[in-house]
């Protein structure tokens, strides 16, 4: 199954336009999107989707961006997972990445997409093996099944888009949304210059600062305390870690969200000063009706 050349061209152009929007956003300072009372009513934060189309559609229904022009919607980690194409079995999650790019075009400065470890892996060709399958290879196979000879054109635009993604969303002065936290910040201060400067190949490579940021899983209290002090914030909202019940609070500064499963959760944060971790925990909601989820 290969789409018409015009469809492939439109997909490439959507990626390119989304990348331009992200780079030139008036809300962006360096690699951080800054949200405050002047531009925001509330922020809907979601986390890892990995191609879950049902949860993706539900997020858009809840966000209802057309009816809420001052609402911001945060996505992260949509690649690698979900349904596959018949016969060759290529991963269809590239379509969700395309949908994200189109949403950014349709709702510039309302839809935000954070760099995660899986999107970084696609940007840098860093191999990820899971369940005995090479996820990058399945992703490219899916693109090949959809676009055939147009894959190089699509891939070039896709890489350009991925390179434009912000590292963090800062909500007011206290809260920062990132994909994860780097490890051992209490042993050695993290290179927080990546939030402000242009990223380079070393930052994105294994051992580089961005790679450490999106691949880290050090959720110790001491680690979160040190990074928060470096950044001058109080609270982190992250993804990256699977959560049995859709969220977790591993320390007093961090809340982890997970949108992959039927128990997926999101957070709706009002633009307000003085929010505590307890306030944020009280603003976590289920993507689906708990009674329906519990049904056999």
Quick gist of this model?
InterPro entries: Calcineurin-like_PHP (IPR004843), Metallo-depent_PP-like (IPR029052). GO terms for molecular function: hydrolase activity. With 296 residues, the chain is α/β, with parallel strands linked by helices.
Question: What does this entry look like structurally?
Answer:
- The protein has 296 residues and is of the alpha/beta class.
- It has one domain: Purple Acid Phosphatase, chain A, domain 2, CATH 3.60.21.
- It is 37% helix and 18% strand.
- The chain contains eleven helices and 14 strands.
- It has a seven-stranded mixed beta sheet with strand order 1-2-8-9-10-12-11.
- Strand 1 and strand 2 form a beta hairpin.
- Helix 1 runs parallel beside helix 6.
- The longest helix is centred in the N-terminal third of the chain and has 20 residues.
- It is globular, with a radius of gyration of 18 Å.
- The mean pLDDT is 96.
């Amino acid at each position: 199954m290969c789409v018409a050349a015009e469809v492939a061209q439109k997909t490439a152009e959507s990626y390119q336009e989304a990348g331009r929007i992200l780079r030139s956003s008036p809300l962006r300072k360096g690699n951080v999107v800054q949200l405050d009372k002047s531009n925001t009513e509330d922020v809907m934060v979601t986390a890892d989707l990995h191609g879950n189309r049902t949860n993706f559609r539900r997020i858009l229904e809840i966000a209802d961006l057309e009816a809420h022009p001052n609402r911001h919607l945060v996505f992260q980690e949509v690649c690698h997972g979900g349904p596959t194409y018949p016969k060759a079995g290529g991963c269809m999650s590239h379509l969700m990445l395309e949908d994200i790019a189109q949403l950014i075009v349709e709702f510039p400065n309302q839809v935000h997409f954070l760099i995660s470890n899986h999107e970084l892996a696609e940007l840098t060709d860093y191999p990820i093996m899971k369940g005995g399958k090479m996820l990058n290879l399945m992703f490219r196979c899916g693109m090949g099944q959809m676009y055939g000879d147009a894959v190089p054109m699509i891939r070039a635009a896709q890489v350009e888009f991925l390179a434009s993604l912000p590292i963090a969303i800062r909500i007011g002065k206290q809260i920062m949304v990132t994909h994860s936290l780097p490890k051992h910040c209490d042993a050695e201060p993290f290179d927080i210059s990546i939030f402000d400067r242009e990223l380079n190949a070393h930052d994105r490579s294994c051992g580089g600062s961005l790679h450490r940021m999106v691949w880290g899983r050090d959720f110790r209290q001491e680690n979160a305390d040190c990074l928060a002090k470096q950044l001058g914030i109080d609270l982190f909202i992250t993804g990256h870690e699977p959560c049995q019940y859709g969220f977790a609070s591993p320390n007093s500064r961090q809340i982890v969200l997970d949108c992959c499963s039927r128990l997926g959760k999101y957070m709706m944060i009002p633009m307000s000063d003085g929010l505590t971790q307890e306030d944020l925990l009280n603003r976590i909601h289920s993507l689906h009706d708990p009674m329906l989820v519990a049904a056999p």
